[in-house]
């Protein structure tokens, strides 16, 4: 019951956390009591420091201090904006610069590599939340997706058209 209450409080405040089931490892269960000099569970740690048990968390919640002590969950939209702006030229694709994991991603890599422009990639196969969220955020249903200075340029077909028209290099340089 105490652990459930702790989780409910953390979730209610949008606090980012992970957990460990102390019943899964008796050595950890007993050792942590000694390590922390705290005899009961749950125990909340932030950045490796013991904050306390449920009573302490309830006190911090009541005083309004809980949210200043604990890290918040980053909203998906904020995370996407951060990723899109990670580099001036950012490519969301299946795979990486070193190894594309689909034909469309391979083709767009070849085109961008031919420009000599530096860019970063994000493998959408490694993060389902980003993979689905970016489709909605950008209002673009497919991958790869190319961004320059935080703005969506488009997918493979658009990039091919821009290359053929001679517009791709100025766009990648941020001149358009």
From TrEMBL:
Domain Glutaredoxin, by residue range, is 1-51, 89-153
Q: Which GO terms describe its molecular function?
A: iron-sulfur cluster binding; metal ion binding
Q: Sorted alphabetically, which CDD domains does this protein's record hold?
A: GRX_PICOT_like
Q: Which residues form a coiled coil?
A: none
Q: Which GO terms describe its biological process?
A: intracellular iron ion homeostasis
InterPro entries given for it?
Glutaredoxin, GRX_PICOT-like, Monothiol_GRX-rel, Thioredoxin-like_sf
Keywords, alphabetical: Iron, Iron-sulfur, Metal-binding
Which cellular component, as a GO term, is one annotated location?
A: cytosol
Q: Which PANTHER family does the record associate with it?
A: GLUTAREDOXIN FAMILY MEMBER, GLUTAREDOXIN-3
Protein name in the entry: GLRX3 protein
Q: Which organism is it from?
A: Ceyx cyanopectus (Indigo-banded kingfisher)
Q: Which gene encodes it?
A: Glrx3
């Amino acid at each position: 019951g105490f652990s459930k209450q702790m989780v409910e409080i953390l979730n209610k405040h949008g606090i980012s956390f992970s957990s460990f089931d102390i019943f899964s490892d008796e050595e950890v269960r007993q050792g942590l009591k000694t390590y922390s000099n705290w005899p009961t569970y749950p125990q909340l740690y932030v950045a490796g420091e013991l904050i306390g048990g449920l009573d302490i968390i309830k006190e911090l919640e009541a005083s309004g201090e809980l949210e200043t002590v604990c890290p918040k969950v980053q909203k998906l939209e904020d995370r996407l904006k951060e990723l899109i702006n990670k580099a001036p030229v950012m490519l969301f694709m299946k795979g990486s610069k070193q190894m594309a994991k689909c034909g469309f991603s391979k083709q767009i890599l070849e085109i961008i590599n031919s420009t000599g422009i530096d860019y970063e990639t994000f493998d959408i196969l490694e993060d389902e939340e980003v993979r689905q969220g970016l489709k909605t955020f950008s209002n673009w249903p497919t991958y790869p997706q190319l961004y320059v200075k935080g703005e969506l340029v488009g997918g493979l077909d658009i990039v091919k058209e821009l290359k053929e028209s001679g517009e791709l290099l100025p766009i990648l340089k941020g001149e358009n």
